[in-house]
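explain this:
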Amino acid sequence: MRPYRPYRPYRRPPPSFKQRPMRKLALDVLFEWSKGEDYAAALIDEASHDCELSSRDTALLQTLVYGVLRHRNLLDRWAELLTDKKELDRETLAALRLGLVQLLVLDMAPHAAVNETVEHAGRAGALVNAVLRRALREKDALYAVRETAPLHIRFSQPDWLVRRWVKQFGETEAAALCHWNQQPAPIYVRINRLMPKRPVFSFLDDHGDDFFSVESPPREAIAAGACYVQDPSTAMAPELLNPTPSDSVLDVCAAPGGKTALMAQMMRNDGRITATDSSGKRLERMMGNLSRLGVNNVTSITHDWIEKPGGPVENKKFDRILLDVPCSNTGVIRRRVDVRWRLRESDFAELAAVQFQLLMNSVGVLKPGGAIVYSTCSIDAEENEQVVQKALAAEPRLKLAETKQSLPHRDGLDGAYAARLELSV
């Protein structure tokens, strides 16, 4: 789930944003991202739409932008060494980051990387040109710097976050996690069993349970509702809840609907799922996804569980509740590259307080004898085990039945946590 913050629609770039050379477009996207109001994926999608980019150009834009964000600390250390610690303005540093990532990480053709980056560096063009050409000459020395740098530099993670992981997992596992976060995320699709025809597409690996890794999304099959882009780790919480056709099910934070759709399949499109979210726009998009997937046992209701803890339907209680709370996203940093730079250390306590309140409010609409699954895509104990233990202490009728966790560097999937809690009669 996304961090619990107010929804902010993306502001469409001005017309002058259009028809830019690709490296200039990457610099513009990175500049917009630096304002702190939008995630990189949304900016890339918007730029691709506005500039009518081909699939190939969109992929190049994504590679450039994600490359800079994924390696920012390391690029800054290299820039510091190559400029002899010269103080750089924001535009110059951005151009150097873009040039260095092409030359030293992405291994792009030096001629295009240097010349086109310098062309869009403005008044700093001469400096950027000199630094990038020095980088080419001193490649081996720069790579040696990377190998001996501290974890937060070598793998470009916030220093405070790396220290937090070392404390929780130990240095060896923290290093493995940092390394994992630097790898491009594979694309997984889940076969939709609600559709009568099984889709035919090429895949790289059969993960089991109808999940397949693919080189690129099978767009026709997705458009037809025959499959859905979804990481296998997202199945953990619905499987732990195990809803049946005879259950009344509540999905508290439902959008964008991947887990909702899987539960509908598990229920064979029978029974009733009530899906809520605080954003009507997100619910509208979710219902469009569910319609395409052939799901017809879901009713959506816009509802804020923090402001209105009593639930969306007066006196209504449910047999099964899925609570996939807003969280830090620390289990999906490989997939959501810029999450690491959006997080603050204070976010964990703030998120845990919201998560606990959502859990207790949801328990209030659970039938005695029913079950609720609390889940996150976080790997942090403060958002996972500690929230669950606090809930168990606050409500003696709750019993912890089972927990599951996926750790990326250990299990080879996105990070996730799920706990099944049962309410005694």
